[in-house]
Description:
- The protein has 358 residues and is of the alpha/beta class.
- Helix content is 35%, strand content 21%.
- It folds into two domains: 6-134, Rossmann fold, CATH 3.40.50.2300; 154-356, 3-Layer(aba) Sandwich (Rossmann fold), CATH 3.40.50.180.
- α3 (66-76) runs parallel beside α4, α4 (89-101) crosses α7 and α6 (182-190) packs across α11.
- It starts with 5 loop residues before the first strand and ends with a helix.
Amino acid sequence: MESNxxxxxxxxxxxxVRNTMTEILxxxxxxxxxxxxxxxxxxxxxxxxxxxxxxxxxxxxxxxxGLTFLKKIMSQHPIPVVVISTLTTKGAETGLKALExxxxxxxxxxxxxxxxxxxxxxxxxxxxxxxxNQSKIKRLNKSSxxxxxxxxxxxxxxxxxxxxxxFKTTEKVVAVxxxxxxxxxxxxxxxGLPLDCPGIIITQHMPEMFTKQFAxxxxxxxxxxxxxxxxxxSVLRGQALIAPGNKHMILSRSGSRYYVIVKDGxxxxxxxxxxxxxxxxxxxxxxxxxxxxxxxGMGADGAKGMLEMKEMGAINIAQDEETCIVFGMPxxxxxxxxxxxxxxxxQIAHKMLKITxx
Length: 358
């Protein structure tokens, strides 16, 4: 066993799922599955013998459900947990609770019925495990991550006709991008905003079904309106639109009206939705009337798009390392000199309102 590999324990009541996930994770040279468990009781026995770096956890299991096990883990012996969920309304609701209880990521169960879906599932699962390994809950030294699969850029989704509108407008737009740890960060950003705040568009790396539940929850908790974006939705003051899982969201403009285009497309920077797609379209459609915010997350998605926003006159904010669960996406944007302000999470909303009031 190589000590520098990320050691993973898989907890799932399905033998087929355990075998499939073991094959997927072991295919990554930086990951090693050190054990599997059919339920939480067996998992506890395995953990007593060898503590994993990351646990992948199914929610619906016999004898003890995954949420109960997660709460026990986080209160007694915190270990980074990636929750594996089914794409159902119930699964999405439970997955969001898991994030509140301390899970680092929630992803859908691997799809293996076609080569392309297997490839996507392999990337998402391995990326989630690496992100969990680098999260703040991790107490060992963090290792750098190298991904070798081909990355598509946002040009694969944005058309050449997605140019800057020639009509002038002074209406501000705030574009937000986040990934690992982003659900709680977005909640912190939005929950205190006033009803007259500028229109907000958000891309959070999250599975389909989950974004609708996430938006509905935020809508109940926030003063502003929060909804999962639909194709053609206007960007309005006092409203936040969240990109649907498994769809890209593009900002466009007709005269002085901003609206979003929700569309299919390939993975961009290995994500769908992609923050780069949102940010680059915002640069083209809103220019200096935009504010960009990049929050916690692993990888580099959004960094180049944020640089393009800055080059077009936007003012950009990055969450600081201290308050990030994973300081990946903000760090990449900062290193590209795409950021104007680096702030703690609880300071970002105030700065955003101050910038957009000028």
